[in-house]
Amino acid sequence: MTAPEHLDWLFARQRFGVRPGLDRVHALLAALGRPQDRFRTVLVGGTNGKGSTAATLAAVLTAAGERAGVFTSPHLTRFSERFVVGGQELPAAQVLEALDRVRPLAEAHEASFFEVVTALGCLLFAEAGVRTAVMEVGLGGRLDATNALDPVLSVLTNVGLDHTAILGDTVQAIAAEKVGILRAGRPAVTGVSPELWPVLDGPGADLWAVGRELRWEARPLGWDGHEVGLHTPAGDLSFRTPLLGRHGAGNAALAVAAALRLGIPAEAIRRGTAATRWPGRLERLPWRGGQVLLDGAHNPDGARALARAVSELGTVPLPLIFGAAEDKDLDGVAAALRPLASRVILTRAALSPRAAEPHRLAGLFPGLPLTLTHTPQEALEALAPGTLALACGSLYLVGELRPLLLGEAGEERERWQ
């Protein structure tokens, strides 16, 4: 098989959907020789903020001289973005060569898309000599493929209402799924709200929670991010992060708390947080004399955090490019975004079968000037030159807009996961 055919095979497995359970991924990892035993694992779960927290922690570990890997999902533009070692995306050829070896074993064990990708990440990290792998949890926690690994530390960013058809329709039910990534007697950090602490305390992890063992405050630095002060049982620490929005500062604080629990020294933490980069999340890119601010906010909590951040930056009202999946809480997302918008340009991610048609989204923005477009390129063309605009609603949409803004080639395969 050629490399493109292997990716075609893998992406086709997305259509089988999410298949919770750990038996298949355990079997696949065993068939690969248990590569996860060759590095230590940190699991990062939660409803929002997982990626930026994982990216910050990996940057800190790298600054401390560790060979760190970070596994995230979904990718924005290239499949190989999911596998980063030492701050560098692994070469596509290396990823595809490993996939060539994983494929027959995955087929034998009927592994799902995300199970294959998780096992592939473990194999790549083991063969790259990674010492610590920061693994972003996919869906939920208890039955997510990443939970087949045995973490030395777990991070649970927050819990909100998302993927309710699978995880449950209350935050308590969702928390009960996500808390599955914690391990009894092992360190963990969390930013979940206090009413959920009893759920998180259940597994018996050595848990630090924001508002209990942890406190933080942030001083905004405009477009440069935040100066953050963190107070922990291990001592106090101040650092800078380029992450925008108060939620970005909070995610960085959780990553730093995790780093302290791993024994990383303060100076390496400061270097790592300052060097953190997380594309597609409050990221500004140039477009025809203006700029487009990209963000993947796709649920009400994420949209509210984005709205606060954009308002604090003093850029509202501004044109909004919006597209979203049909299965999201579109009313909740739109309610948070409406006050930001001077006008709304509706579009859809061309490669996402889950994307809502623009005309289905029109009723979400009453009273605002609307432009309906068929593709992300048309949405960009509808912007007046020299303006700052916000584009959000779907990571898949961001993943299609970003290469257009950068003048790069995009991906041409359907995106489900």
From TrEMBL:
Q: Which reaction does it catalyse?
A: (6S)-5,6,7,8-tetrahydrofolyl-(gamma-L-Glu)(n) + L-glutamate + ATP = (6S)-5,6,7,8-tetrahydrofolyl-(gamma-L-Glu)(n+1) + ADP + phosphate + H(+)
Which GO terms of the molecular function aspect are on file? ligase activity
**What Pfam families does the entry give?**
Mur_ligase_C (PF02875), Mur_ligase_M (PF08245)
The source's superkingdom equals Bacteria
Positions of the Mur ligase central domain: 44-259
Question: What positions does the domain Mur ligase C-terminal occupy?
Answer: 280-394
Nucleotide-binding in keyword set: yes
| Protein EC | 6.3.2.17
Q: Does the keyword Magnesium apply?
A: yes
Gene3D superfamilies this protein is in? Answer: Mur ligase, C-terminal domain, Mur-like, catalytic domain
Q: Provide the alphabetized UniProt keywords.
A: ATP-binding, Ligase, Magnesium, Metal-binding, Nucleotide-binding
Q: Which PANTHER family does the record cross-reference, listed alphabetically?
A: DIHYDROFOLATE SYNTHETASE-RELATED, FOLYLPOLYGLUTAMATE SYNTHASE-RELATED
The record's comment on protein family reads:
Belongs to the folylpolyglutamate synthase family.
Name this protein carries in UniProt: tetrahydrofolate synthase
What lineage, starting at the top, does this entry show?
Answer: Bacteria, Thermotogati, Deinococcota, Deinococci, Deinococcales
